[in-house]
């Protein structure tokens, strides 16, 4: 956490000298500009500064908290909420205790992964039909598990990376095999609203690793699309399943009926 005394506010610069928190805030600010469709020329004109100056600010060069606050006001944001939204650079692996508790309580796990994918209190109550008191009980447990933080404005922020991993063969992997995977496999891939691509290509282990890295990058893009979609108010919205998989085929199984 970064704490600034009142007399320093106008002079502190963001994301300089390797401040990871400032870098995360700038990344979230850039995402917000994309969500609202605000370009640098337009924002520079509204701020009354030259475009090169604003571009330097967005790279973290010379951007003060005063000017960051001005930008937030023009975007209809509160600086504290922007800071709360910024990824913490948190853990990318669950502790064993966290895995066990999330795997043992399906409702708690569902709520946490919804939060990890952008849900706030209103969506948890409306979309998942979870009573407000039950939501608060779950949030309290997640906070005690060090999985979330809640800002003074009430915004929920995950304390783990969005691409957090779980242990192979661990509690969450077992729970996924037992419950979540069946939901994916039971879906009607031929339904009108379903969109999917499938292919069969020869790949080495190194090639599959590269594809998996593309999945990770695409996952971030999907979250950005979801945020832009929400900001544009294109609704109605539905929680949508996304499954990406690459693995070796058992060719004998594929060709058995063709011999």
Protein described:
With 259 residues, this protein is mainly alpha-helical. The chain folds into three domains: 6-85, lambda repressor-like DNA-binding domains (434 Repressor (Amino-terminal Domain), Orthogonal Bundle), CATH 1.10.260; 91-182; 189-259, no CATH class. It has twelve helices and four strands. A two-stranded parallel ribbon has the order 1-4. It has a two-stranded antiparallel sheet with strand order 2-3. Strand 2 and strand 3 (156-158) form a beta hairpin. The longest helix is centred in the C-terminal third of the chain and has 28 residues, at 205-232.
Summary, kept brief:
The chain is mainly alpha-helical. The protein contains 12 helices and 4 strands.
Rounded Rg: 22 Å
Described by the principal axes of the CA atoms, the overall outline is globular
Provide the residue-averaged pLDDT: 81
Assembly status: single chain
Structural class: mainly alpha
Instruction: Specify the number of helices.
Output: 12
Task: List the SSEs and their pairings.
Layout: H1 20-36, H2 40-47, H3 51-58, H4 65-74, H5 79-85, E1 91-93, H6 96-104, H7 106-116, H8 121-127, H9 132-144, E2 148-150, E3 156-158, E4 160-165, H10 171-185, H11 205-232, H12 251-255
Parallel strand pairs: 1-4
Antiparallel strand pairs: 2-3
Helix pairs in contact: 1-11, 2-3, 6-7, 6-10, 7-9
């Amino acid at each position: 956490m970064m704490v600034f005394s009142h007399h320093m506010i106008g002079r502190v610069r963001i994301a300089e000298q390797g401040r990871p928190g400032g870098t995360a805030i700038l990344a979230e600010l850039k995402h917000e500009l994309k969500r609202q469709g605000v370009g640098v020329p337009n924002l520079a004109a509204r701020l009354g500064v030259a475009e090169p100056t604003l571009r330097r600010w967005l790279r973290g060069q010379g951007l003060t908290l005063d000017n960051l606050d001005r930008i937030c006001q023009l975007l209809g944001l509160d600086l504290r909420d922007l800071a709360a939204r910024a990824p913490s650079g948190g853990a990318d692996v669950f502790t064993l205790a966290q895995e066990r508790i999330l795997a043992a309580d399906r409702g708690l796990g569902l709520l946490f992964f919804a939060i990890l994918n952008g849900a706030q209190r209103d969506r948890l109550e409306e979309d998942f039909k979870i009573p407000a008191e039950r939501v608060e009980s779950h949030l309290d447990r997640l906070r005690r598990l060090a999985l979330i933080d809640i800002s003074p404005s009430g915004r929920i922020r995950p304390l783990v990376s969005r691409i957090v991993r779980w242990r192979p063969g661990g509690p969450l992997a077992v729970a996924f095999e037992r419950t979540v995977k069946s939901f994916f496999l039971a879906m009607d891939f031929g339904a009108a609203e379903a969109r999917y691509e499938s292919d069969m290509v020869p790949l080495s282990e190194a090639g599959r690793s590269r594809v998996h890295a593309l999945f990770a990058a695409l996952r971030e893009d999907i979250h950005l699309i979801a945020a832009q979609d929400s900001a544009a108010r294109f609704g109605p919205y539905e929680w949508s399943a996304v499954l990406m998989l690459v693995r070796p085929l058992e060719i004998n199984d594929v060709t058995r009926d063709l011999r």
